[in-house]
Protein backbone atom coordinates (compact mmCIF):
# COMPACT_ATOMS: atom_id res chain seq x y z
CA UNK A 1 0.00 0.00 0.00
CA UNK A 2 1.28 3.50 -0.92
CA UNK A 3 0.17 6.53 1.09
CA UNK A 4 -0.26 10.08 -0.33
CA UNK A 5 2.93 10.99 1.51
CA UNK A 6 4.88 8.31 -0.33
CA UNK A 7 5.09 5.70 2.45
CA UNK A 8 5.10 2.07 1.33
CA UNK A 9 3.17 0.01 3.91
CA UNK A 10 2.85 -3.73 4.41
CA UNK A 11 -0.57 -5.20 3.64
CA UNK A 12 -3.09 -5.18 6.48
CA UNK A 13 -3.28 -9.00 6.41
CA UNK A 14 0.47 -9.32 6.58
CA UNK A 15 2.59 -11.53 4.34
CA UNK A 16 2.05 -15.22 3.75
CA UNK A 17 4.53 -17.29 5.78
CA UNK A 18 7.35 -18.60 3.64
CA UNK A 19 10.76 -20.15 4.10
CA UNK A 20 12.05 -18.28 1.02
CA UNK A 21 12.63 -14.60 0.31
CA UNK A 22 9.54 -13.03 -1.26
CA UNK A 23 10.19 -10.29 -3.82
CA UNK A 24 7.72 -7.62 -4.92
CA UNK A 25 8.17 -4.97 -7.66
CA UNK A 26 6.15 -1.81 -7.34
CA UNK A 27 5.70 0.61 -10.30
CA UNK A 28 5.20 4.07 -8.76
CA UNK A 29 4.16 7.24 -10.54
CA UNK A 30 4.48 10.64 -8.85
CA UNK A 31 2.54 13.72 -10.04
CA UNK A 32 2.53 17.28 -8.69
CA UNK A 33 -0.38 19.75 -8.76
CA UNK A 34 0.85 21.24 -12.07
CA UNK A 35 0.47 17.90 -13.75
CA UNK A 36 4.16 17.13 -13.96
CA UNK A 37 4.96 13.51 -13.27
CA UNK A 38 7.68 10.93 -13.12
CA UNK A 39 7.71 7.18 -12.56
CA UNK A 40 10.02 4.59 -11.13
CA UNK A 41 10.16 1.11 -9.71
CA UNK A 42 10.62 -0.02 -6.10
CA UNK A 43 11.72 -3.55 -5.27
CA UNK A 44 10.67 -4.94 -1.90
CA UNK A 45 12.19 -8.12 -0.47
CA UNK A 46 10.35 -9.81 2.39
CA UNK A 47 12.72 -11.98 4.42
CA UNK A 48 11.59 -15.15 6.21
CA UNK A 49 10.79 -14.66 9.90
CA UNK A 50 13.37 -16.05 12.29
CA UNK A 51 10.91 -16.67 15.10
CA UNK A 52 9.57 -20.24 15.40
CA UNK A 53 6.12 -20.84 14.00
CA UNK A 54 3.34 -21.92 16.36
CA UNK A 55 3.00 -25.67 15.90
CA UNK A 56 0.94 -28.28 17.76
CA UNK A 57 2.88 -31.29 19.00
CA UNK A 58 -0.20 -33.44 18.28
CA UNK A 59 -2.70 -32.41 15.61
CA UNK A 60 -5.30 -34.93 16.75
CA UNK A 61 -6.11 -36.39 20.15
CA UNK A 62 -8.66 -38.94 21.31
CA UNK A 63 -9.46 -38.64 25.00
CA UNK A 64 -11.70 -40.86 27.13
CA UNK A 65 -12.94 -39.74 30.56
CA UNK A 66 -15.26 -41.58 32.94
CA UNK A 67 -18.84 -40.56 33.50
CA UNK A 68 -19.24 -38.50 36.66
CA UNK A 69 -16.05 -36.48 36.21
CA UNK A 70 -16.67 -33.37 38.30
CA UNK A 71 -16.49 -29.65 37.43
CA UNK A 72 -13.03 -28.19 36.78
CA UNK A 73 -11.34 -31.60 36.77
CA UNK A 74 -8.44 -31.90 34.32
CA UNK A 75 -9.50 -33.75 31.17
CA UNK A 76 -6.39 -33.34 29.01
CA UNK A 77 -3.79 -30.79 27.95
CA UNK A 78 -2.79 -29.60 24.50
CA UNK A 79 0.72 -28.33 23.84
CA UNK A 80 2.10 -26.19 21.06
CA UNK A 81 5.60 -24.87 20.44
CA UNK A 82 6.37 -21.29 19.46
CA UNK A 83 6.65 -17.84 21.02
CA UNK A 84 4.04 -16.24 23.29
CA UNK A 85 1.67 -19.16 22.75
CA UNK A 86 -1.95 -18.81 23.85
CA UNK A 87 -4.85 -21.23 23.45
CA UNK A 88 -8.54 -20.89 22.61
CA UNK A 89 -11.42 -23.20 21.67
CA UNK A 90 -12.61 -22.41 18.13
CA UNK A 91 -15.43 -24.90 17.91
CA UNK A 92 -17.94 -25.20 19.26
CA UNK A 93 -17.97 -21.41 19.40
CA UNK A 94 -19.77 -21.48 22.76
CA UNK A 95 -18.43 -24.62 24.46
CA UNK A 96 -20.72 -25.85 27.23
CA UNK A 97 -18.90 -28.84 28.70
CA UNK A 98 -15.26 -27.78 28.55
CA UNK A 99 -13.02 -24.77 29.05
CA UNK A 100 -9.37 -24.19 28.20
CA UNK A 101 -6.69 -22.32 30.10
CA UNK A 102 -5.31 -19.86 27.55
CA UNK A 103 -1.85 -19.96 29.13
CA UNK A 104 -1.30 -23.69 29.78
CA UNK A 105 -3.62 -25.42 27.31
CA UNK A 106 -5.26 -27.42 30.10
CA UNK A 107 -8.78 -28.49 29.20
CA UNK A 108 -11.16 -28.94 32.13
CA UNK A 109 -14.77 -29.89 32.55
CA UNK A 110 -17.29 -27.17 33.40
CA UNK A 111 -20.02 -29.52 34.66
CA UNK A 112 -20.29 -33.02 36.03
CA UNK A 113 -19.95 -35.06 32.87
CA UNK A 114 -22.52 -37.51 31.54
CA UNK A 115 -22.12 -39.97 28.71
CA UNK A 116 -21.42 -37.93 25.58
CA UNK A 117 -19.07 -37.42 22.63
CA UNK A 118 -17.65 -33.97 21.96
CA UNK A 119 -15.60 -32.67 19.04
CA UNK A 120 -13.33 -29.70 19.90
CA UNK A 121 -11.17 -27.58 17.60
CA UNK A 122 -8.45 -25.77 19.54
CA UNK A 123 -6.36 -22.91 18.23
CA UNK A 124 -2.87 -22.03 19.43
CA UNK A 125 -1.57 -18.62 18.41
CA UNK A 126 1.21 -16.14 19.03
CA UNK A 127 -0.27 -13.45 21.28
CA UNK A 128 1.91 -10.77 19.69
CA UNK A 129 1.35 -11.99 16.13
CA UNK A 130 -2.14 -13.56 15.99
CA UNK A 131 -1.73 -14.45 12.31
CA UNK A 132 0.84 -17.01 13.46
CA UNK A 133 -1.47 -19.82 14.56
CA UNK A 134 -2.25 -23.53 14.29
CA UNK A 135 -5.24 -25.74 15.04
CA UNK A 136 -5.70 -29.19 16.57
CA UNK A 137 -8.68 -31.51 16.84
CA UNK A 138 -9.81 -33.30 20.01
CA UNK A 139 -12.38 -36.04 20.24
CA UNK A 140 -13.51 -36.36 23.88
CA UNK A 141 -15.61 -39.35 24.85
CA UNK A 142 -17.34 -39.46 28.23
CA UNK A 143 -17.78 -43.14 28.86
CA UNK A 144 -20.28 -44.66 31.23
CA UNK A 145 -19.39 -47.38 33.69
CA UNK A 146 -21.59 -49.79 35.56
CA UNK A 147 -18.65 -51.20 37.47
CA UNK A 148 -17.60 -50.13 40.92
CA UNK A 149 -14.10 -50.31 42.32
CA UNK A 150 -13.49 -53.38 44.53
CA UNK A 151 -14.08 -52.97 48.25
CA UNK A 152 -11.52 -54.87 50.36
CA UNK A 153 -11.28 -56.08 53.95
CA UNK A 154 -9.00 -55.23 55.59
CA UNK A 155 -8.70 -51.77 54.02
CA UNK A 156 -5.23 -51.35 55.60
CA UNK A 157 -2.76 -54.14 56.38
CA UNK A 158 -0.67 -53.67 59.53
CA UNK A 159 1.26 -56.72 60.70
CA UNK A 160 4.15 -57.78 62.91
CA UNK A 161 6.07 -60.88 61.91
CA UNK A 162 9.13 -62.60 63.43
CA UNK A 163 12.26 -62.64 61.32
CA UNK A 164 12.12 -66.45 61.30
CA UNK A 165 8.80 -66.63 59.44
CA UNK A 166 9.42 -68.95 56.52
CA UNK A 167 8.97 -67.99 52.84
CA UNK A 168 5.51 -68.87 51.58
CA UNK A 169 3.83 -68.06 54.89
CA UNK A 170 0.61 -66.02 54.58
CA UNK A 171 0.35 -62.76 56.49
CA UNK A 172 -3.18 -61.81 55.47
CA UNK A 173 -5.90 -62.80 52.99
CA UNK A 174 -7.83 -59.95 51.39
CA UNK A 175 -11.58 -60.33 50.94
CA UNK A 176 -12.67 -58.05 48.09
CA UNK A 177 -16.23 -57.61 46.79
CA UNK A 178 -18.35 -55.25 44.70
CA UNK A 179 -16.64 -55.74 41.33
CA UNK A 180 -17.67 -57.88 38.40
CA UNK A 181 -15.34 -60.46 36.89
CA UNK A 182 -11.98 -61.70 38.06
CA UNK A 183 -9.77 -59.60 40.29
CA UNK A 184 -6.04 -59.23 39.87
CA UNK A 185 -3.66 -58.46 42.71
CA UNK A 186 -0.28 -56.76 42.50
CA UNK A 187 2.23 -55.33 44.95
CA UNK A 188 3.63 -51.84 44.37
CA UNK A 189 6.27 -50.09 46.45
CA UNK A 190 9.99 -49.92 47.21
CA UNK A 191 12.14 -52.75 45.81
CA UNK A 192 13.08 -53.81 49.36
CA UNK A 193 9.40 -54.49 50.13
CA UNK A 194 8.56 -56.11 46.80
CA UNK A 195 11.52 -58.49 47.12
CA UNK A 196 10.48 -59.68 50.60
CA UNK A 197 6.74 -60.01 50.04
CA UNK A 198 4.50 -61.20 47.21
CA UNK A 199 0.87 -61.65 46.29
CA UNK A 200 -0.45 -65.13 45.63
CA UNK A 201 -3.97 -64.38 44.49
CA UNK A 202 -5.55 -62.49 47.37
CA UNK A 203 -2.93 -63.68 49.88
CA UNK A 204 -0.03 -61.51 51.03
CA UNK A 205 2.89 -63.86 51.58
CA UNK A 206 6.50 -63.81 52.69
CA UNK A 207 8.66 -64.10 49.59
CA UNK A 208 12.11 -64.55 51.10
CA UNK A 209 13.90 -64.75 54.43
CA UNK A 210 13.14 -61.78 56.68
CA UNK A 211 16.59 -61.26 58.19
CA UNK A 212 16.41 -58.80 61.08
CA UNK A 213 20.18 -59.05 61.53
CA UNK A 214 21.05 -57.29 58.27
CA UNK A 215 22.08 -53.76 57.34
CA UNK A 216 19.27 -53.63 54.77
CA UNK A 217 16.63 -54.26 57.44
CA UNK A 218 18.27 -51.68 59.69
CA UNK A 219 18.16 -49.11 56.86
CA UNK A 220 14.41 -49.66 56.48
CA UNK A 221 13.90 -49.31 60.24
CA UNK A 222 12.78 -52.97 60.27
CA UNK A 223 9.52 -51.78 58.69
CA UNK A 224 8.43 -52.44 55.13
CA UNK A 225 5.73 -50.46 53.33
CA UNK A 226 3.99 -51.22 50.06
CA UNK A 227 0.58 -50.96 48.40
CA UNK A 228 -1.59 -53.87 47.34
CA UNK A 229 -3.39 -52.91 44.11
CA UNK A 230 -6.62 -54.80 43.46
CA UNK A 231 -7.74 -54.44 39.83
CA UNK A 232 -11.04 -55.31 38.20
CA UNK A 233 -11.56 -55.60 34.46
CA UNK A 234 -13.92 -53.55 32.33
CA UNK A 235 -13.72 -50.17 30.68
CA UNK A 236 -12.47 -48.09 32.24
CA UNK A 237 -10.63 -50.48 34.60
CA UNK A 238 -11.40 -50.04 38.29
CA UNK A 239 -8.91 -50.52 41.10
CA UNK A 240 -8.56 -50.26 44.86
CA UNK A 241 -5.33 -49.64 46.77
CA UNK A 242 -4.67 -51.23 50.16
CA UNK A 243 -1.70 -49.74 52.09
CA UNK A 244 0.56 -52.26 53.82
CA UNK A 245 2.95 -51.89 56.78
CA UNK A 246 4.88 -54.93 58.01
CA UNK A 247 7.21 -54.71 61.01
CA UNK A 248 9.84 -57.44 61.37
CA UNK A 249 10.59 -58.36 64.98
CA UNK A 250 13.87 -59.93 66.16
CA UNK A 251 14.33 -63.53 67.24
CA UNK A 252 17.44 -64.51 69.17
CA UNK A 253 18.73 -67.03 66.68
CA UNK A 254 22.41 -67.15 67.48
CA UNK A 255 24.27 -68.27 70.62
CA UNK A 256 26.95 -65.84 71.83
CA UNK A 257 30.48 -66.99 71.11
CA UNK A 258 32.87 -66.90 74.04
CA UNK A 259 36.61 -66.32 73.77
CA UNK A 260 38.68 -69.50 74.09
CA UNK A 261 40.36 -68.12 77.16
CA UNK A 262 42.36 -65.17 78.36
CA UNK A 263 45.28 -64.68 80.75
CA UNK A 264 45.84 -61.41 82.59
CA UNK A 265 48.65 -60.30 84.93
CA UNK A 266 48.08 -57.92 87.83
CA UNK A 267 50.37 -56.57 90.57
CA UNK A 268 49.41 -57.62 94.09
CA UNK A 269 49.65 -53.95 95.02
CA UNK A 270 46.98 -52.98 92.48
CA UNK A 271 44.56 -50.48 93.96
CA UNK A 272 40.85 -51.06 94.38
CA UNK A 273 39.08 -50.57 91.03
CA UNK A 274 42.20 -51.11 88.92
CA UNK A 275 41.54 -52.61 85.50
CA UNK A 276 42.89 -56.14 85.01
CA UNK A 277 41.76 -56.77 81.44
CA UNK A 278 38.79 -57.09 79.18
CA UNK A 279 36.89 -60.11 77.86
CA UNK A 280 35.31 -59.78 74.41
CA UNK A 281 32.68 -62.15 73.03
CA UNK A 282 30.66 -61.98 69.81
CA UNK A 283 26.96 -62.29 68.93
CA UNK A 284 25.52 -62.34 65.40
CA UNK A 285 22.08 -61.18 66.53
CA UNK A 286 21.18 -57.53 65.92
CA UNK A 287 22.47 -55.28 67.30
CA UNK A 288 25.80 -57.00 66.77
CA UNK A 289 27.80 -58.01 69.82
CA UNK A 290 25.23 -56.58 72.19
CA UNK A 291 26.25 -58.71 75.18
CA UNK A 292 26.26 -58.44 78.94
CA UNK A 293 29.01 -60.01 81.05
CA UNK A 294 29.00 -61.39 84.60
CA UNK A 295 31.19 -63.60 86.80
CA UNK A 296 29.93 -66.82 88.28
CA UNK A 297 30.17 -66.62 92.05
CA UNK A 298 30.26 -63.57 94.30
CA UNK A 299 33.26 -61.30 94.96
CA UNK A 300 35.19 -62.23 98.12
CA UNK A 301 38.60 -63.42 99.36
CA UNK A 302 38.49 -66.33 96.93
CA UNK A 303 37.51 -64.03 94.05
CA UNK A 304 38.68 -60.44 94.55
CA UNK A 305 37.51 -59.39 91.08
CA UNK A 306 34.38 -58.10 89.40
CA UNK A 307 33.34 -57.63 85.79
CA UNK A 308 31.09 -54.92 84.41
CA UNK A 309 28.43 -55.45 81.74
CA UNK A 310 30.93 -54.52 79.01
CA UNK A 311 33.45 -57.24 79.95
CA UNK A 312 36.00 -55.14 81.85
CA UNK A 313 37.54 -56.98 84.87
CA UNK A 314 38.57 -54.90 87.90
CA UNK A 315 40.20 -55.47 91.30
CA UNK A 316 37.69 -55.25 94.17
CA UNK A 317 39.62 -56.97 96.96
CA UNK A 318 43.12 -57.39 98.44
CA UNK A 319 45.61 -59.47 96.47
CA UNK A 320 48.24 -61.66 98.15
CA UNK A 321 50.62 -63.50 95.83
CA UNK A 322 51.82 -65.66 98.72
CA UNK A 323 48.37 -67.12 99.23
CA UNK A 324 47.01 -67.00 95.66
CA UNK A 325 49.32 -66.84 92.70
CA UNK A 326 46.44 -67.22 90.23
CA UNK A 327 42.65 -67.12 90.05
CA UNK A 328 40.37 -68.93 87.67
CA UNK A 329 37.34 -66.84 86.69
CA UNK A 330 34.30 -68.11 84.84
CA UNK A 331 32.72 -65.38 82.71
CA UNK A 332 29.09 -65.62 81.71
CA UNK A 333 27.93 -63.95 78.44
CA UNK A 334 24.28 -63.12 77.95
CA UNK A 335 22.72 -62.16 74.68
CA UNK A 336 19.29 -63.67 74.25
CA UNK A 337 20.43 -67.10 75.43
CA UNK A 338 22.75 -67.23 78.49
CA UNK A 339 26.07 -68.91 77.73
From TrEMBL:
<feature type="domain" description="Cadherin">
    <location>
        <begin position="85"/>
        <end position="152"/>
    </location>
</feature>
<dbReference type="GO" id="GO:0005886">
    <property type="term" value="C:plasma membrane"/>
</dbReference>
<keyword id="KW-0812">Transmembrane</keyword>
<protein>
    <submittedName>
        <fullName>Cadherin-related family member 4</fullName>
    </submittedName>
</protein>
<keyword id="KW-0472">Membrane</keyword>
<dbReference type="Pfam" id="PF00028">
    <property type="entry name" value="Cadherin"/>
</dbReference>
<feature type="domain" description="Cadherin">
    <location>
        <begin position="258"/>
        <end position="331"/>
    </location>
</feature>
<dbReference type="InterPro" id="IPR002126">
    <property type="entry name" value="Cadherin-like_dom"/>
</dbReference>
<dbReference type="GO" id="GO:0005509">
    <property type="term" value="F:calcium ion binding"/>
</dbReference>
<dbReference type="InterPro" id="IPR015919">
    <property type="entry name" value="Cadherin-like_sf"/>
</dbReference>
<keyword id="KW-0106">Calcium</keyword>
<dbReference type="GO" id="GO:0007156">
    <property type="term" value="P:homophilic cell adhesion via plasma membrane adhesion molecules"/>
</dbReference>
<feature type="compositionally biased region" description="Basic and acidic residues">
    <location>
        <begin position="281"/>
        <end position="291"/>
    </location>
</feature>
<keyword id="KW-1133">Transmembrane helix</keyword>
<feature type="domain" description="Cadherin">
    <location>
        <begin position="153"/>
        <end position="258"/>
    </location>
</feature>
<feature type="region of interest" description="Disordered">
    <location>
        <begin position="278"/>
        <end position="307"/>
    </location>
</feature>
